[in-house]
Design goal:
A 7-stranded mixed sheet has the order 3-2-1-4-5-7-6, sandwiched between helices. The protein is globular and about 50 Å long. Helix content is 39%, strand content 17%. With 281 residues, it is α/β, with parallel strands linked by helices. Helix 6 crosses helix 7.
């Protein structure tokens, strides 16, 4: 397992999440204000339904934790960590790869924000039990080869009664069923040569770069069981911001014509992202 973790760390250091068509690519020089503005514009647009007057305020309890200690597990380029810091939280953030840590530190420096940003493995977080009032992870832990241990750690460092939020990919989604299992696994016959995890790793994220070392989407019941075993209350929403792009491929010429009222029920059941949130008991 340690070998896979090393591969994950190295791959994401070489292909950092810039939210472009190709991982790690940007028209702007990394570490500059233009670089952060460019990637934030794409990331925020992808998640537009989750915003109100503030980014992600429909899922993040900013006001409840103003002045409190919060932690992001897998900070990437620091977009979400900066959102919390702007709302007055005392932010800590960790990431497995050093490029993400350096870029998030640079972002905070440019914005004049305070935060403790360090390199760490989600399976062994360098914090005492119950350190944080709120802990979250967005689009990261499905890349962990030991998801159960990573979730236990996330809950361990959350104080009793504190909140958490976790977004991971959804195995029962249209994107996984159609794009990965049907198109690549069946039509292109990749399923003859690749295991389910290998297929998801190759096509579930960064397909243009022939995939990444490990990606394994989960089901709602699996995620609920893992979080409940860690001593947490659990509420799970399916987020379907990907559905428009999938329907364009499934129904060429028709996907964009479907009214929103018809797409919403599908998005709420078969979207690509699961958002689990609750409190540590």
């Amino acid at each position: 397992m340690s070998e896979v973790v090393g591969q994950v760390r190295e791959w994401w250091a070489e292909h950092p999440m810039t939210y472009g068509d190709v991982h790690g690519r940007s028209a702007e020089l990394p570490g500059t204000p233009a670089f952060f503005a460019d990637l934030d514009a794409r990331f925020l647009e992808w998640n537009r339904p989750l915003h109100g007057e503030r980014p992600f305020e429909r899922i993040f309890p900013y006001d409840r934790h103003r002045g409190g200690r919060v932690l992001e597990v897998g900070c990437g380029m620091g977009t979400m960590a900066a959102c919390w810091a702007r709302q007055g939280a005392r932010v800590s953030a960790v990431d497995l790869n050093p490029v993400a840590v350096a870029q998030t530190q640079r972002r905070f420096e440019l914005l004049g924000l305070e935060g403790d940003v360090r390199q760490a493995d989600a399976r062994r977080l360098p914090f005492d039990d119950g350190t944080f009032d709120y802990v979250w992870s967005w689009g990261v832990l499905h890349h962990s080869p030991d998801l159960s241990q990573s979730l236990r750690e996330l809950l361990r460092v959350t104080r009793p009664g504190g909140g958490y939020g976790v977004m991971v990919y959804h195995r029962r989604s249209l994107l996984h069923w159609y794009m990965t299992r049907y198109v690549e696994g069946f039509l292109h016959m990749e399923g003859r040569f690749l295991s389910d995890v290998e297929l998801a790793s190759r096509y579930g994220d960064a397909a243009r770069e022939e995939g990444n070392p490990h990606t394994w989407p989960v089901t709602r019941s699996e995620l609920r069981a893992l979080l409940s075993a860690g001593g947490a209350s659990v509420d799970i929403r399916v987020l379907g911001t990907d559905l428009d792009s999938v329907l364009r491929l499934m129904l060429p010429g028709l996907g964009d014509l479907l009214p929103v009222r018809l797409k919403k029920p599908w998005a709420r059941r078969f979207g690509w992202s699961l958002w689990a949130h609750g409190h540590r008991r």
